[in-house]
Amino acid sequence: MLNGDAYKASLDDGRATYFEGEKVHDLVGHPILGQTAEITANAYDKYYDPAPGASSPLLAVPQSADDLYDLIPMLHDAGMMAHVTSTSIQTLKTASSRMADVKPEYIERMSAYIDEAQQADVRITQCITDAKGDRSRPPARQDDLDAYVRVVDRQRDGVVIRGAKLHITGASFGHDLLTIPTKAMKPGEEDWSIGCVVPVNAPGVKIINTTYAPRHEDDRAFPISRSFHYPEGFVIFDDVFIPHERVFLDGETAFAAVFAHSLGLWERLGGLSAFVEEADELVGFAQLVAEANGTAGISHVKEKISEMIIHATLIRASLEAAVRNCKISDEGAAFPDELYVNAGKFHAAANYNLMVRHLHDIAGGAVLTAPVPSDFENGDVGDLARKYMSTGNDVDGEYRASLMHAIRDLTADAYGGWKFVTNLQAGGGLYAQRIVTRRHYDLDGAKQKALVVAGLSEDQGHT
Which of 342, 322, 403, 410 is nearest to 370 (CA)? Predict the structure, then answer.
């Protein structure tokens, strides 16, 4: 296993990563990106076990509902890089269980890579979303054939890929990039049916980073994003060679969608479990700020908070159902139930903006205008700011301002904007969850129940 220092040292491997127009030569020492390295290193230290042969529980493959149930809070505690790594490993396990009719060597390679990743305690990010070019055209009809990642050369010992993958959280802070098709492919799209693992420092890999991290010298008014931020990577594959042992799909169009669907299942489980925690946080902030504002007893405020509580409870129930109704593969790996994962993720994402609207309505305009901590420390206006931010003898003005800053940072600033979009798009948009939910719902069973109620079932003489 790696500890935090070993992880940070592993980032100095010649990787080509860029931020705001400049190449970053020292990720760990970078004033903004370095904070992400520290966050990830701290998680390494927290779960480090120096015993010979020890392996990280964060990279384990769950084999039961209890294993799944235990893994989810650990991943949230360990942060985004642990989450995307676990999701990558579970994606490969899920895909391999669904590819029994394809080349056996693919299954063997995926299994061997999982073992290798667990032993090396690496971090893996998933690269799925292509540049896509003109969305109305398939890959082979794009003006630029590199709009979807493709194989441009097949050599005796491997393949060469070209293209780009977008929106890859933490791409610069892992060790490997799990690169898979973004959607189903058809005959004639063999070159775009490529699944493989690419080292972050492989020649030809270039990563452009963007981040919502606060740029303020005094970041106390950003209590969440100052200590929780993971850059998004724009990952470019500029003729990158991949040896055969790291290739899990090459040209078999019928299986291209297997990887996307497998990743979607685990991404949506991660998204659903994050929504569960966030929903409780939103309820907590709504109640706290209502009490601080003196409005906790007003009927419409109570109604809004009740609606937020019901939302939080329903998505938690979906998560519980997804885990407790898990399926076990022939290899003994546990997969969450697809119906409950997708229905829960859809409900959570579709209603997130409404829950935030309730919170903003309860909190009021001070979410955007409250004085910052340094204002309260100013000798001329600090006491006055505290006086007028207070709502009574038992509500300190600086405390109320701190609540407002937390709400703004979480829901109404750069980090909040990132969450608005990713809550919808992570694991595929809302339409994707609709499709999978319909596919796994027992529609025939529902029809039969309706026929019985209507007195039209076969048992009652209907033909």
Answer: 403
- Say if CB 406 and CB 285 are below 8 A apart: yes
Q: What is the CATH number of the domain that holds 440?
A: 1.20.140.10
Q: Tens digit of pLDDT for each residue in 32-73?
A: 999 999 999 999 999 999 999 899 999 999 999 999 999 999
Domain count, the chain: 1
For residue 462, the one-letter residue type is H
Q: Which domain holds residue 397?
A: 258-447
Q: Amino acid identity, residue 233?
A: G
List, for residues 71-121, the tens digit of each pLDDT value.
999 999 999 999 999 999 999 999 998 887 778 999 999 999 999 999 999
pTM, whole model, 2 decimals? 0.91
Contacts of 266 (CB under 8 A, 6+ apart): 86, 87, 90, 91, 94, 336
Q: How far is CA 177 from CA 27, 199, 236, in A?
A: 18, 6, 11
Residue 412 lies in a domain: yes
Q: Is residue 268 part of a domain?
A: yes
For residue 156, tell me if it sits in a domain: no
Amino acid (one-letter) located at 194: I
CB 132, CB 148: distance < 8 Å = yes
Does a structural domain hold residue 339? Answer: yes
